[in-house]
Amino acid sequence: MTIGLLGPAANQQLDRLDALLGRDASDSVLRLESAFDGIGRAALDDRGLSWNGQDLSTLTALYVHGFRYEDPVIPVDRSLQDWSLWQTGGVIDQQSYSFLYSCLARLEAQGVALVNGPSAHVTGFARGTWLARLHRAGQAVPATLVTNDDDAVGRFLARHTPVIWRPVTGPAAWQLFTERQRRHLVARDKPPVMLAQVIPGPILRLYVLDGQIVLATRQTHPHRGEVERLEAFETVDASVATAWSGLSRAIRHLGLRFAQVLAVETDTSVVVYDVDVDPVVTDLPNTLTDYLLTCLATRLRGSGDLPQPPVPGRHDRPALLLRRMLAVQFDMEATKYAQP
Predict the structure, then answer these.
(1) Edge-to-edge, what's the strand order for the sheet holding 212-220?
(2) Which segments of the chain belong to CATH 3.30.470?
(3) Is the pLDDT of residue 96 over 80?
(4) Global pTM value
(5) Which CATH number fits domain 203-276+279-326: 1.20.1250, 3.40.50, 2.60.40, 3.30.470?
(6) CATH fold for domain 143-197
(7) Element (DSSP H or E) covering residue 314
(8) Does domain 2-123 have CATH number 3.40.50?
């Protein structure tokens, strides 16, 4: 059994997954490194696909990480790009991306189990697409609006308050939509933004693998104590997550083998705000990261039982920044404006 890992050469998630797969002597792991920094030596013809001398027709599964859909017309924005030569650089980028997409599509057509295939990235490029398809399947989603028309924004705000926003395409965080955002973001000479109503409730991260919710967490706010913490993740008991099986089936019907779903929990259901087709799991507490990567390795092998989920409870993510130092600095600055 040969399992391929396709992604950037230096990537913590791929490194940890590679180590897990390498523990099984029956697995042969093929790292297709530098895939997005340059194609390398590749050949695609009627007989198959070779990559740096490796025949990829022998792959049984391929995990794709870091692949991003690119608009085939607009060049990728790079701050160091010499735009006097953009035509040359743009064409090279487009052709490289097109070839990579063709390679993945060929493997998918040959029956290689891709996690996830290129069609998932194309469909999910416009983030509202997933919500529309889930809504048609009967899944609860918030009221949304994609627009750059201020009159339409006014009508939406009149019906739904408060409101959050995000860019229409690509990965991004939802943010509160205020009058200031409205003034700076909404105009006919600017790209549309995506607005959504705020549904009260705990924020959920649901990790769906092959139509099964393998991990569900409720996210809590950062807190100050003897040790400062960033967001903490409270794992949800499997019996509770089972009640959301309709959502996991809907994700599988979207053609996604592995996905992260951002949702809000209500008394009666979960309301989906976003679907990430290429989740980064190394930002979670280590216990949860190891569990998810072990589940993924098991599914890539195509056999074996999934590991036991973590015991329900609170899992803290270690602080990545010296937030206490920043808090002290902000407190000092605030004293300059304090009333005597």
Answers:
(1) 270-276, 258-265, 203-209, 212-220, 232-235, 314-316
(2) 203-276+279-326
(3) no
(4) 0.84
(5) 3.30.470
(6) Dna Ligase; domain 1 (3.30.1490)
(7) strand 314-316
(8) yes
- Taking the C-alpha atoms of residue 270 and residue 302, their distance in angstroms, rounded to an integer, is 30
Q: Is pLDDT at 177 greater than 70 in this prediction?
A: yes
Each residue's pLDDT tens digit, 205-249:
999 999 888 999 987 765 555 555 556 788 888 666 666 778 888
Read off φ and ψ for residue 94, nearest 5 degrees. -65, -40
Q: Which residues in the chain are classed under CATH 3.30.1490?
A: 143-197
H helix or E strand, kind and range, residue 55: strand 54-55
Selected residue with higher pLDDT from 331 and 74:
331
DSSP bridge partners of 63: 5, 115
Three-class secondary structure of residue 209 per DSSP = strand
Question: Among positive and negative, which fits the CA dihedral 252, 253, 256, 262?
Answer: negative
pLDDT for 340 equals 47
CA distances (Å), origin 130, targets 127, 140, 193: 6, 12, 16
Which long-range contacts link 87-96 to residues 24+ away (Cβ below 8 Å)?
A: 94/70, 96/38, 96/39
Spatial strand order of the sheet with 175-176 comes to 144-147, 193-197, 163-167, 175-176
Per-residue pLDDT of 20-69, as tens digits, reads 987 765 668 888 765 455 556 778 887 778 877 778 878 889 999 988 77
Q: By CB neighbour count within 10 A (0-12 exposed, 13-18 middle, 19+ buried), where does 93 fall?
A: middle
Task: Confirm if 257 and 267 have CB atoms less than 8 A apart.
Answer: no
- Tell me the average pLDDT across 77-95: 63
